[in-house]
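Protocol check, entry for the methods section draft. Step 1: assemble the input record (protein sequence plus ligand SMILES). Step 2: submit for complex structure prediction. Step 3: store the structure tokens unaltered in the notebook. Ligand used here: adenosine-5'-triphosphate. Step 1 record:
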Amino acid sequence: MKKVLTIAGSDCSGGAGIQADLKTFSAHGVFGMSVIVSVVAENTSRVIDIQDVRPDMIEKQIDAVFEDIDVDAVKIGMLSQPDCMEAVAGKLKQYAPANIVLDPVMYAKNGCPLMNPDAIDTLIEKVIPFANLLTPNIPEAEKIAGMSIHNVEDMKKSAEAIYRMGCKNVLVKGGHASGSALDILFDGERFYTFDAQRIDTKNTHGTGCTYSAAIASNLALGCSLQEAVHRAKEYITTAIRHSLAIGKGHGPTHHFYELYQNGLKNGAEINNGQ
Ligand SMILES: Nc1ncnc2c1ncn2[C@@H]1O[C@H](COP(=O)(O)OP(=O)(O)OP(=O)(O)O)[C@@H](O)[C@H]1O
Ligand SMILES: Cc1ncc(CO)c(N)n1
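Step 3, stored output:
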């Protein structure tokens, strides 16, 4: 069985973070493992408080996994402070795992901050160079690239600027744009687009976590990057289409294994071109 690790924050309400990642791993038939970087008291409406795990404890969790188990892919999510980022980066250097997917989480869907804005330089200098794939949404791509994004051309320009920071591939997600749900992948040479119909729902809590965890699962299963993103786009589109009206705010996506299989069989209408 393929083994995939998430290094991220815990969402006690179950829709995002570590919890979304582990549900996504199970739906893909891979063995999920987790290193908790922050404990977040949050729900579908708000973030109440964040307690970061001590950096040496983050390092020890990563050691515990890698000294014992071969890891086929790593998904990295919420890293709230520079010292958490440095702890994770040091261990990525030490263990050099394959297939690192980095979701540079900055805000929850309800707008609450999950990363200290002063940590962005550390993210760029210390963590981004380890990523095989970076998956910013539009506001995150704006902050990292230092430009504003108004259209698809701007999404492409931001992807090029972020690529130059040392990650091997960049996927700028269009969930925050209007029109169809269009994502742009840049591999340093070419752009690939992954487009799906926008689903009219407020229940999109944890979509970015789910998407990046699905990409990491597919990479662990041996897919090429383009195939991994294509399949993950089908997965997230199906999970949003069947999202759950749980809670009073942005409800979570749905991770039923059977739903995933049916979604794939029914072909969740993804157009990918170049
Ligand atoms: N309403 C929607 N209908 C269809 N696809 C969507 C919708 N909203 C987001 N997506 C898709 O979901 C994926 C995740 O993108 P999004 O930009 O929402 O991530 P995110 O903002 O990082 O999520 P979060 O911070 O809540 O975890 C992308 O493929 C995006 O195109
Ligand atoms: C712990 C955690 N990670 C990521 C997100 C972004 O959706 C969230 N809301 N909570």
